[in-house]
């Protein structure tokens, strides 16, 4: 049952990542990888909220598997973030590469903490 929950979450998360990335990137006239940035921050916010809900007893282990491991695992992408950062650096866009690293780490951590704080406000 557990693996099925992970698979079901991933079935939604992977296409959602792809479609969100394409939609966001198509609206940008920049080499900065806004699509990947968006899905990673959204996933971190979701995971922070879910983690806070679980800590407060408002989210079951099944929901954690479905949304945390499955959906967020497939939605977020460290490998694409790394590849795009490397691609920017190799293309000579070193400032964009550095901005991607700093902004992604800061925004993703901030989103996770914000999600946990929101969960605490809702369920504690």
Task: Walk me through what this model shows.
By secondary structure, the protein is mainly alpha-helical. 85% of the residues lie in helices and 0% in strands. It has 5 helices and no strands. It has helices at residues 2-26, 34-55, 61-75, 78-90, 94-123. Helix 1 (2-26) packs antiparallel against helix 2 (34-55). The two termini are 29 Å apart. The model has no long low-confidence stretch (mean pLDDT 97).
User: Helical segment tally?
Assistant: 5
Strand content: under 5%
Number of strands: 0
State the secondary-structure class: mainly alpha
What is the makeup of the main sheet? none
In percent, how helical is the residue content?
over 70%
Shape: globular
Radius of gyration: 16 Å
Low-confidence runs of at least 5 consecutive residues: none
One letter per element, helices H and strands E, the order comes to HHHHH
Mean pLDDT: 97
CA distance, first residue to last residue: 29 Å
How would you sum up this structure in a few lines?
The protein has 124 residues and is mainly alpha-helical. The protein has helices at 2-26, 34-55, 61-75, 78-90, 94-123. The chain starts with a helix and ends with a helix.
Q: What does the secondary structure layout of this molecule look like, with pairings?
A:
Layout: H1 2-26, H2 34-55, H3 61-75, H4 78-90, H5 94-123
Helix pairs in contact: 1-2, 1-3, 2-3, 2-5, 4-5
Q: Key features?
A:
5 helices, mainly alpha, 124 residues, 85% helix
């Amino acid at each position: 049952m557990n693996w099925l929950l992970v698979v079901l979450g991933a079935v939604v998360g992977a296409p959602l990542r792809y479609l969100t990335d394409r939609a966001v990137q198509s609206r940008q006239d920049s080499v900065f990888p806004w699509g990947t940035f968006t899905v990673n921050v959204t996933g971190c916010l979701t995971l922070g909220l879910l983690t806070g809900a679980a800590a407060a007893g408002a989210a079951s282990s099944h929901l954690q598997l479905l949304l945390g491991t499955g959906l967020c695992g497939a939605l977020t992408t460290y490998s694409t973030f790394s590849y795009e950062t490397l691609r920017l650096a190799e293309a000579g866009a070193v400032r964009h590469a550095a901005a991607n690293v700093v902004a992604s780490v800061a925004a993703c951590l901030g989103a996770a903490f914000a999600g946990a704080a929101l969960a605490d406000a809702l369920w504690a």
